[in-house]
Design a protein that fits this description.
heterodimer; A: alpha/beta; six-stranded mixed sheet; four-stranded antiparallel sheet; elongated; B: alpha/beta; 2 domains; 22 helices; ABC-type transporter activity (chain B)
């Protein structure tokens, strides 16, 4: 079925997100780290000045140890070192805390958005945001912020000190810096354009890699790799072209500016100029030394600054994805039903009712459902059938509010589901879907979800009714057996029966089944069906079914076709009508009686048929 | 081999690991670029050395300028320094040409092409191990990132090791006491760092594991969200998740403390060295055997030396990543394809035999297939049935030679698979998988990949026989519709029919069907069934089936359990005999009759 853009797309996405904003939860700590880092830079510069003073005192009087300056230099060295470590640690602990805060926030947000949002974004993609994108912030938060403070404080203070020491030498360093910066800027001109091309080329490469590696069995069986290898090679070629282009356009200026901004040219020029000035008697040796000690500070700050810029660009994608989830629309609740009191259902209203429901997956998409109205009496079984894409699954998922209707209303016992609190709604409805999800915990814990206070006896009773007690007892640790990640240690049918036991234990009046038997292997199918029968007993059931034989005896069959209810009624009447359902039933019976190769005739080689 | 690459073994900590890294790097860039790379590395080392000597020249220069009223001596030293520094810059410029002329980019481009080609011939068993698969994607995807910075990182390493060493040697010539002290401090740092590196690795490993666990828990949360919410246990009530995040934070802090240690040690040595040089220098001056100006010059040099060291530490993570990537590349390139025995033979007939086949997965526990014998005559239809995990799929993978049996043999037309060239085996067999993989290309190209030289008419005929025409013509751009964008909008049945058309076009004599109708809706099922009927006529067919009713017409049914053959025969015979198959048949019959109200 075609699931398109999520509704969240309606709100315009923030285009460029500043990574700094995401730091808000740990702002104080980061500011502290930056302040400590700045002070470490200051300590470092102080060491240089004190070294200068040590030498100056020794020149004036080579026989006395300048204890004060000497001790000062030693202390500031240690201070700079300790402060650097402190800033580093602060920033790291802040980064770790930020990761936790963001992850918790994201997980809580997901608990309040529509499940449809979760489904359209994909559980895997959302997990990536919560884990990988948050993790990607680390380098920025932990490593960059202290550097950032240094990269700004060092050049400014250095310049001031240089001017104070000797303005002519300060000018020399500024000229070198300006020269280097000019060239560097030249190299940056087409940068944005280049970065875009580079990212596009990279993305193509990784898409080609994923396709190529994942599909390797198919690749080998069908084209010995020619076609997909060609696509992979094409992507590599495109990437190569972009890179070579970049080197041609920006290679020389980038390389040249690195050379100019490296410490050597500054040092050499300051030495030369200083030599000339001292020989003219215009500069004292100690001032010259002081300038030599700090003169490279400005040029050296350029590289970290460029790195930071690059890093911020890199994380901004992650930040944008995090913010997008953080601002995903929450499910609203009309204030009509107080959400903390148990719900009182109107016994005269239908257990479940759709009234003129129209729904589309996005504002510019054709409605997936059009003007659907039906009522389900308490304790009855309603089956939803129809060709794929007709809207059956959409109907099933509107009931637990995976999405909200575009127009019309869905009500349970007379209450609009949008007026109910999320917990109130969930207390009424239980679901069993195609593939049931188990948590990597024990079997008992998996059954107990939703009724944590259930006794062991209740759990066993539910498992027994769900035909699961037998295989559970055969397991080495019985109910305490861990089921593995996503329940991998169990077969599809076993997982499904545990899900049924879970639903039985929850004991909710309305049951929604979406092809609950689709993935069962034949071995388990009989037991699964017995379990389902047990679960359906006495409940109001809405079920999506492909195997039409299973719903012959449903109280009401709704036949969907292109988003509308084409026919409704009981099986025999519908077959007699000779419409959509009759056609489906006919196809179904034919498919049931098919056996592979039944039409194999030695006289008709396949290639003849193809031609 | 892959296993080894997956858990990178603890690396050697001596200088020899540097040499290994060089060698791996040279291997990776290939024979054409390797000499250039070697020259470039030599250039970088020489540049670092010249830079060191150039720095050392500052000492006599500065001393001369401060003590000698005659400028000529200072000017000579200034000239020496400029010459040395200029040579260093020139050499570095030349060496970085390897990057900037695009030779490195070309080399990684070539390497990725080679790795891709390699992937086509390594045993599929290794590819399908999920971890190895991810690893390979990573290698292919990140080769450039890891190698493109190689010269930049190595340049930093050389400036951190060679430059201080040469500067210290230069100073020894001028003042042996200070020079010796420098010689002791700075070169000691790098070995010290490498010696302490295992601690860094330990911290990383602990952290990596914590991240892996957290990642799994997060995925479980998002996947289980519908159930958690139905149970009222999402959001702030998800205690387990919250615990995981707290645990991760404390492990991060712990790992940080552990991992920061080598850095702290190196930084401490640098700082202490600075103070020691300061102390010794002052003492020498006061003792009258050193001029204060020389001491000042030494300060300038020492400050210059400590700078590359701190950047080096900043970039060591990159060095680690590069080394690990090189190792993985080496491991992947060293993977051997399954051997082919001589003389090569191509079967003329297409009956299949399994003879006493035993097979155990490399990472599995216990035999997946044991003592398996079966004879599948040419143009017969054989069904494999049995509970999931019993070995049905393993048998088809043995036939496709994803791996070789440890004992016994699989033959096609009497020829052992190991004698058939790899690409010929794939030419003999078409597989229709349960999960259809459509490529990011047009519908036409997706079908044509079955036989690239097929004409448009032939592709069309195959699509028609596979019941594809109606929906292909409904697609927005018809045959030219790119499936990358809309692949998800096709139903399971439609995707399956495209894959059958592909197989029809290929027209291989042997067909393997792996539950091709397992997850289809009724309407698609009928169309897929028709398509399959077109595909299997006149072929040797192996089908894995869960629904027994679909294979009642098979020429033989093989009932498999725990990797061994339990029963074999035609449907009617097996039913008459009773036993496993008959029981399965009865169970499925009961299910068929089930209806909701019963």
């Amino acid at each position: 079925m075609a699931i398109k853009e999520p509704r969240a797309e309606q709100t315009p996405k923030p285009k460029r997100v500043s990574p700094w904003r995401i730091l808000t939860p740990v702002k104080t700590q980061i500011n502290l780290a930056m302040a400590i880092s700045a002070s470490s830079a200051l300590f470092g510069l102080a060491v240089m000045l004190q070294l200068m003073m040590v030498v100056q005192r020794l020149i004036e009087d080579p026989t006395t140890v300048p204890w004060l300056w000497f001790a000062g230099a030693a202390i500031c060295t240690v201070g700079a070192y300790v402060a650097r470590l402190g800033a580093f640690n602060q920033a790291h602990y802040a980064a770790f805390r930020l990761e936790r805060v963001l992850r918790t926030g994201l997980a809580e947000r997901l608990a309040r958005v529509s499940l449809g949002y979760v489904e359209t974004q994909g559980a895997g993609a959302l997990a990536k945001v919560i884990h990988d994108d948050v993790k990607a912030l680390h380098v920025f938060v932990a490593d960059s912020t202290p550097l950032y403070a240094r990269a700004y404080v060092t050049p400014v203070v250095t310049l001031a000190l240089l001017i104070a020491l000797d303005w002519r030498l300060a000018l020399v360093t500024l000229i070198v810096l300006g020269f280097g910066y000019g060239i560097l800027n030249g190299a940056q001109k087409r940068r944005r354009d280049m970065v875009r091309k580079y990212n596009a080329a990279r993305e193509q490469v990784s898409a080609a890699v994923v396709e190529y590696v994942q599909a390797m069995p198919v690749v080998r069986n069908f084209d010995s790799g020619k076609m997909s290898f060609g696509r992979y090679q094409n992507a590599l070629d495109g990437y190569l072209t972009v890179m070579l282009d970049w080197y041609r356009a920006a290679g020389f200026p980038a390389r040249f500016s690195w050379l100019v901004l490296s410490p050597m040219p500054t040092l050499t020029l300051v030495l030369g100029t200083g030599l000339w000035l001292t020989s003219a008697g215009d500069l004292s040796v100690s001032r010259w030394l002081g300038v030599l000690l700090i003169c490279t500070g400005m040029a050296e700050a350029m590289m970290p600054m460029m790195m930071l810029r690059h890093m911020i660009e890199k994380v901004s994608l992650s930040v944008a994805r995090i913010e997008e989830v953080m601002t995903a629309p929450e499910l609203g609740q009309g204030a009509k039903v107080p959400s903390d009191t148990p719900l009182t259902l109107d016994p005269t209203a239908p257990a479940l009712q759709f009234e003129n429901v129209t729904f589309s997956y996005g504002p510019d998409l054709d409605p997936a459902l059009r003007d659907i109205s039906f009522a389900v009496a308490e304790g009855s079984v309603t089956a939803l059938v129809g060709p794929s894409g007709a809207g059956k699954t959409t109907v099933a998922r509107l009931i637990p509010r995976f999405w909200d209707v575009t127009s019309g209303a869905i009500s349970l016992g007379g209450h609009d589901i949008r007026d109910m609190g999320p917990d109130q709604l969930m207390e009424q409805v239980a679901f069993v879907f195609q593939e049931s999800f188990l948590f990597a915990e024990s079997i008992a814990a998996n059954i107990r979800i939703g009724k944590p206070d259930a006794s062991d006896e209740d759990v066993i009773a539910a498992a027994t009714a769900a035909q699961a007690h037998g295989f559970i007892s055969d397991l080495p640790q019985g109910y305490d057996t861990p089921v593995g990640e996503r329940g991998v240690f169990l077969s599809g049918g076993q997982r499904q029966r545990i899900a049924i036991a879970r639903a039985l234990l929850q004991s909710r009046p309305i049951l929604v089944l979406d092809e609950a038997t689709a993935f069962a292997d034949p071995e388990n199918e009989a037991e699964l069906i017995a379990a389902l029968s047990e679960l359906m007993r006495g409940r109001t059931v809405i079920m999506v079914a492909h195997r039409l034989a299973t719903i012959r005896d449903a109280d009401q069959i709704l036949v969907f076709d292109r988003g509308q209810i084409a026919e409704r009624g009981a099986h025999d009447d519908l077959v007699a009508q000779g419409g959509v359902y009759a056609r489906l039933w006919n196809n179904y019976e034919q498919a049931q009686n098919w056996s592979l190769g039944g039409e194999r005739t030695p006289q008709a080689p396949v290639i003849e048929m193809v031609k | 081999m892959m296993q080894k690459a997956a858990n990178v073994p603890p690396r050697k900590t001596s200088a020899s690991s540097f040499l290994t890294t060089f060698r791996q790097l040279a291997d990776s860039v290939g024979p054409e670029a390797a000499p250039g790379l070697r020259w470039s590395l030599a250039g970088l080392i020489a540049a670092a050395a010249f830079q060191g000597f150039g720095l050392a020249a500052i000492a006599p220069l500065f001393t001369a300028a401060a003590t000698d009223p005659d400028l000529s001596r200072a000017l000579i030293w200034f000239g020496v320094m400029i010459a040395l520094m200029g040579t260093a810059s020139g050499l570095r410029w030349f060496a970085q040409g390897f990057d900037f002329d695009g030779r490195m980019v070309r080399a990684t481009w070539r390497l990725r092409g080679q790795l891709g080609a390699k992937l086509r011939e390594i045993p599929l068993e290794q590819l399908q191990n999920k971890r190895a698969g991810e690893l390979n994607s990573m290698v292919l995807g990140n080769v450039d990132e890891n190698l493109l910075y190689a010269l930049t990182v190595l340049n930093l390493v050389f400036t951190a090791i060679v430059t201080p060493l040469c500067a210290a040697i230069g100073i020894v010539m001028f003042d042996w006491r200070l020079g010796l002290l420098l010689l002791m401090i700075f070169p000691a740092i790098v070995p010290l760092y490498r010696w302490r590196r295992p601690a860094l690795g330990r911290g990383k490993r602990i952290l990596g594991q914590a991240h892996q666990e957290a990642s799994a828990d997060v995925l479980e949360y998002t996947q289980g969200l519908p159930i958690l919410r139905a149970a009222g246990r999402a959001g702030e009530k998800a205690e387990k998740l919250s615990q995981t995040f707290h645990k991760l934070e404390s492990i991060q802090a712990f790992g940080h403390r552990k991992g920061a240690k080598p850095n702290i040690i190196v930084a401490s040595v640098v700082e202490l060295g600075l103070v020691a040089v300061l102390g010794l220098g002052v003492w020498l001056v006061v003792a009258g055997s050193l001029h204060p100006a020389t001491l000042g010059a030494v300060f300038v040099i020492v400050v210059r030396l400590s700078e590359p060291l701190s950047t080096f530490i900043l970039y060591t993570a990159m060095l680690e990543v590069m080394e690990a990537a090189l190792e993985r590349i080496g491991a992947l390139m060293a993977t051997k394809p399954l051997p082919q025995t001589e003389p090569a033979q191509v079967p003329k007939e297409f009956g299949i035999q399994f003879k006493d086949v035993n097979f155990t997965y490399a990472q599995g526990d216990g035999q997946a297939i044991s003592g398996f014998n079966a004879d599948l005559p040419e143009r017969s239809l054989t069904a494999l049935v049995g509970p999931s995990g019993c070995g049905k799929t393993t048998l088809t993978r043995l036939l496709l030679r994803h791996f070789d049996p440890q004992n016994g043999a699989v033959t096609i037309g009497g020829v052992d698979l190991r004698q058939i060239p790899a690409d010929r085996i794939n030419g003999l067999i078409s597989v229709v998988f349960q999960d259809v993989y459509l490529f990011n290309d047009t519908v036409l190209a997706n079908i044509r990949m079955g036989r690239p030289e097929a004409t448009d008419e032939e592709v069309r005929a195959a699509a028609k026989a596979a019941q594809c025409l109606d929906f292909i013509e409904r697609l927005p751009q018809g045959w030219q519709t790119p499936l990358g964008e809309i692949g998800g909008r096709l139903s399971g049945g439609e995707r399956q029919r495209i894959s059958i058309a592909r197989a029809l076009l290929k027209d291989a004599p042997i067909i393997v069907l792996d539950e091709p109708t397992a997850a289809l809706d009724t309407e698609s099922e009928l169309a897929v069934q028709r398509a399959l009927d077109a595909l299997v006529s006149q072929k040797t067919v192996i089908v894995i089936a869960h629904r027994l009713s679909t294979i009642v017409g098979a020429d033989q049914i093989l009932v498999i359990e725990d990797g061994t053959l339990m029963q074999a025969g035609k449907h009617a015979d097996l039913l008459a005999k009773g036993g496993r198959y008959a029981r399965m048949w009865a169970a499925q019959g009961a299910v068929k009759k089930w209806s909701v109200a019963s």
